[in-house]
Amino acid sequence: MQKKILFTCLTVLLPLVSFAAPRPVVTLSLGSDRTNVYSTKSITLIPPFQNSYLGTNHYDTEGVIALFAGAESAFCHNWAVQYGLSYFQSSSFGANGNVYQFSDPAFNNLTYQYQIQSRRLYFESKLSPAIQKIWHPYVSAGVGGALNKAYAYIEKPLTSDAVPMAQPFGSHNTKSFTYMAGLGVDVDLGEHVRAGIGYRFADLGHASLGVTPLQSSTNTISNTHLHTNEYLVQFSYVG
Fold it and tell me: How far is the C-alpha of 194 from the C-alpha of 217, rounded, in Å?
């Protein structure tokens, strides 16, 4: 049954695909990532005492740069599909919050902050028609892997008698599955050059700090899902 379905799909799709040689494509993207970095954790440092780390629920907007390298194939007369690999790197997002010592709001004597940097590698595809020969509205999707680094944890006292952690949570790299989906439009500026704008929603996966020598557990401050809204300006060379 599966072989019959595959054969039927190939029979329908192959006549639609142009047998012209694929055109190489290189795209540079610049823009911004708007990401929610909220996280709240309770961590045992010295049993049975816990500290609660209550993150500030906020969005942080940072710059992003990306490079795509792949190919474009034409099909169905005015349609084309691009496919290839893309690399994205964001500037560091800032996470912050309050420390409740002994998990007691009465001991809200410290604030904390740390940084998260995300790097992603996608297998990406873009589907677009050609309108009036120069406009290329598109939808895009991609899956891949992310390397998210959480680092530079520091605490600041709110009162004169508060003492920040002597040995802070360490830096840590987290590998995570990532995916994205988006839409936008490109326009031909010449025979081989296009410019465009686009929006993408991406799940960057999770990130977490390392542990501190002061704690007896392995729990640490972490961000389960880093969801980002990307707004991009793109410049492409199409061979």
Answer: 53
CATH number assigned to the domain comprising residue 184? 2.40.160.20
Give the chain's domain count: 1
Q: How far apart are CA 148 and CA 139, in angstroms?
A: 26
How is residue 1 written in tokens? Answer: 């049954």
- Please list, in sequence order, all residues whose beta carbon lies within 8 angstroms of the beta carbon of residue 8, skipping any fewer than 6 positions away: none
- Tell me the per-residue pLDDT of 154-212, one tens digit each, with 9 for 90 and over: 999 998 888 898 899 999 999 999 999 999 999 999 989 999 999 999 999 999 999 99
Residue 229 lies in a domain: yes
Domain that holds residue 90: 23-238
What phi-psi label fits residue 43: left (phi over 0), alpha (psi between -120 and 50 degrees) or beta? beta
Question: Is residue 94, in this structure, part of any structural domain at all?
Answer: yes
* C-alpha to C-alpha distance for 127 and 137, rounded to whole angstroms: 8
d(CA 19, CA 4): 24
